[in-house]
Predict the structure.
Amino acid sequence: MPLTDIIGHERPKAILKAAIRHDRVAHAYLFHGDPAIGKRLTAIWFAQALNCDAPVAPEGSSGSPEPDTCGICRSCRDIESLTHPDFMLVEPEREAANLQIKIEQVREIEQRMIYRPLIGQRKVCLIDEADRLTLGASNALLKTLEEPPDHSLFLLVTSRPSALPATVRSRCQTLRFAPPARARVEAALIATREMPPAEARFLAVFTEARIGEALTTDPQALRTQQAEFGALVAPAALRSVTGVLSAAEALHRAERAPEALEWIFRWVRDIVLLRLGADPELLLYNDRLPALREPAETMSLEMLLTLLEDLDAFARAGSRNLNPQLVLESVLLRLRDAACAAA
Ligand SMILES: [Zn+2]
């Protein structure tokens, strides 16, 4: 795909184009940043741009040619469909219980990357979710990165760069990717998914502008969940303690307590944002402003912030260390107490 189709990431894109234009492409890059914002897409573009049979080079703003892919030649299409002999994609094996890139996969990289390109200019190896390399695998990869074959290019993609050994990171040129501006994500959703603006805004806020997620998430399913879990924190639902406890128990039985806690986090975050004077456009529940205003005006900010911290701690620790049912009960009862105190 042409580079203009990748939304945002102006700085990494400019750096990669300059590297091509000045023939200064490094042997290894590390693309890092939030999940699902376009890192892998940019890596595939880079592989295409280096191997394209008919690279487009329209006049750039500086008057010099801007390297880009044609997107339609054999090479571009084969890279996109992962059938190009000089392009390999390595990622964690999905079937495995815990996602890992194993040493055998790195051995295969070594064997393939050592040969010169068969038809293209550069032999490119894209390692997605590179933070999933096992220790043995990253040590093996390090040896290759220390003495990369001349014609080779390694593109490591990760949302958790700190999980990679520093020795591997130091062998790569690092490029940081930030989520694109929310307005651009909304515009893309309206253009490509023909969404009404309110729906596009909702999805952009929900995904925190992670464009890859926004483009593939079903807004209707989200709205259904939002309504379902929104009912949990409605004043009527909080009125009865037994009602709160049985709702928490039922959700736990259905293994949906963590999901409920995520939605309560978003609800409380909206209350806090409103309290702090944020633009209502930034609120996920901005179609329920009156329901948000009341707790925003009456509940203690300190209580709300503590609640957010605890919900965030649960999201990070997951159900490994904490019992989701107990956390859900405690969160709902605290919201209930705060609502009663305010009444
Ligand atoms: Zn092409």
Remarks:
- The beta strands are 28-33, 87-90, 123-128, 152-158, 173-177.
- The chain is about 55% helix and 10% strand.
- The CA atoms of residues 230 and 246 lie 16 Å apart.
- The mean pLDDT is 91.
